[in-house]
Design goal:
Helices cover 27% and strands 15% of the residues. By secondary structure, it is of the alpha/beta class.
């Protein structure tokens, strides 16, 4: 499982000679594509994707939105037929309710959030809400003026619905979905921006593009569009909602008046997009946040209406032949994949009650697939009297394992994201190899220092305090560490568990140190 950003692909089916579902899956596997977005619940594709490990986003088509948004039972029926029927074999992680609803079918906008709520309620009733998240993709056109990003806001006529949408995302731990297509923005700008800016190419020093308010330098239009969405979200007083780019690409062919839609530009854009996303550099305003992105799209769709360019966004022709020489697998392999979650932690919410924390912990360690072996009773990271610490350990492990594939830090509002590293690692050395006791060590943060490896007879010089009587242990200090010292296997095998400062104190690291 990746721990950084991922690049997936959209699969449209407006094709006169659509390949078989098994052929499509073979192409995905050959290209090492691990994340796909389906615009509707294609039953043959959902079946073919079973047991492949490919993570799937399933769309609710716009023409079904009204029915689902007006009927809780219709939403439950949709979930049963199109989602639950394919689990657990098919790895469905997201449901995209509609596509660009607010700008493409504004008359139905009023039912968008109710439809999302009904879909989520159906997932909740089926005990699938932790596994599958719900959102809805928006066009960049919901933001009338996207540059400079720092002053971007949503169209004021949409504020009421957008507020409800963002509140839903916040409540359920889901992501804002954005269709970011620099091709359209570039062509509509009529030469205001250089083509290099749209294609992720290096800009001439004379053409540097700065946000005058933040002084952020934007080297590409994609980042500018994503940041415009982040600032628009903030303008409605929301924060901490990640963005998934659900569509981004470049057409390889167009009509006589669409000269920028060509193979060279499409190859450049998609290659550079993949490298940019996998580099995990985020955006200027959100450098620590991954930008999970779905390329638009797998196949050219000859049945799509509109200009010629609309039919030519695919990486492949329907017969499986590549449109141009982009090798998705090689581009992904060449991308610099680092930890996109470096400096980001998922910890227990200090306001969460014990009952909800226990439910979140049980799910993370069970269906969520977190590695909870170290926090089981009798294991070195077990802390029987601190549910918040144990839950944080499980939450953080789950989040780092699954974030790249849509996993979130929510757990029914019992978890929060923090960018402040809460861990204070202090190596506790065993005083006497035969001693089988709990050693509690604490030092003020300013006193933390690396303890030199010593021989047994010198271990008593280590800066640790063994408290045989636990009543002397103070928990009101600024930095502390609980070490379980075990002589099993090796007399100097030390397990150190680190906690945050009061009041949360989550375990975030459980590392083995061998002092010899």
């Amino acid at each position: 499982m990746e721990h950084g950003s991922f690049v997936g692909i959209n699969i449209g089916t407006d094709i006169s000679n659509l390949p078989s579902a098994s052929t499509i899956v073979s192409i995905l596997q050959a290209q090492k594509i691990k994340h796909v977005r389906l615009f509707e619940a294609d039953h043959q594709l959902l079946t073919a994707l079973a047991n492949t490990g490919i993570e799937v986003m399933v769309g609710v088509p716009n023409d079904q939105l009204l029915q689902i948004g007006e009927s809780r039972s219709a939403a439950a029926d949709w979930i049963n037929k199109n989602i639950a029927a394919y689990l657990p074999g098919t790895n469905i992680t997201y449901i995209a309710v509609g596509n660009e609803v607010l700008t493409s079918i504004p008359n139905d906008a009023v039912v968008l959030v109710p439809a999302m709520q009904f879909i989520h309620s159906a997932l909740l009733a089926a005990n699938l809400d932790f596994q599958i998240h719900v959102s809805s993709p928006h066009s960049i056109n919901v933001i009338p003026q996207s540059f400079p990003p720092s002053t971007a806001t949503f169209n004021s006529t949409l504020n009421s619905i957008m507020y409800q949408y963002l509140q839903f995302l916040k409540n359920t731990g889901s992501s804002f979905m954005l269709n970011a297509q620099p091709y359209y923005s570039y062509t509509k700008a009529n030469g205001i921006y250089p083509i290099e800016y749209a294609l992720f190419r290096s800009l001439n020093p004379d053409n540097q593009i700065l946000d005058p308010n933040t002084l952020f330098s934007y080297t590409n239009m994609f980042d500018s569009m994503v940041d415009a969405a982040y600032f628009s979200i903030q303008a409605l007083n929301f924060s901490g909602i990640p963005i998934i780019v659900t569509q981004s690409g470049w057409p390889s062919s167009g009509g006589d008046n669409e000269t920028d839609a060509n193979v060279d530009n499409a190859l450049a854009y998609n290659t550079n997009l993949i490298h940019h996303v996998l580099n995990n550099s985020g955006t200027p305003s959100q450098p620590k946040m991954p930008i999970n992105t779905y390329i638009y799209e797998l196949f050219n769709e000859d049945l799509r209406p509109g200009p010629l360019s609309e039919k030519n966004w695919g990486l492949f022709f329907p017969n499986g032949t590549a449109v141009y020489s982009l090798n998705f697998a090689s581009a992904v392999d060449d991308g610099t994949i680092s930890s996109g979650l470096s400096g980001v932690f998922c910890v227990a919410n200090s306001s969460a009650n014990s009952r909800n924390l226990k439910q979140g912990l049980d799910w993370a360690c069970g269906p969520g697939g977190a590695n909870c072996s170290s926090i089981q009773p009798g294991q070195p990271c077990y802390e029987s009297d601190d549910l918040s610490a144990v839950a944080s350990y499980a939450y953080n492990d789950y989040y780092h394992r699954t974030q790249a594939s849509g996993g979130t830090c929510n757990f029914d509002n019992t978890a929060v994201i923090t960018t402040n590293d809460p861990s204070k690692v202090l190596v506790c050395l065993l005083l006497v190899p035969a001693l089988k006791a709990m050693a509690y060590a604490y030092l003020q943060e300013a006193q933390l220092q690396t303890l030199q490896r010593t021989k047994d007879q010198h271990l008593t010089q280590a800066l640790v305090l063994v408290l045989k009587d636990f009543k002397h242990f103070r928990r009101d200090i600024s930095s502390w560490c609980y070490c379980h010292c075990s002589s099993a296997g090796n007399p100097l095998l030390i397990t150190c568990i680190s906690f945050v400062e009061k009041p949360q104190r989550p375990m975030l690291k459980c590392s083995l140190f061998l002092a010899v």
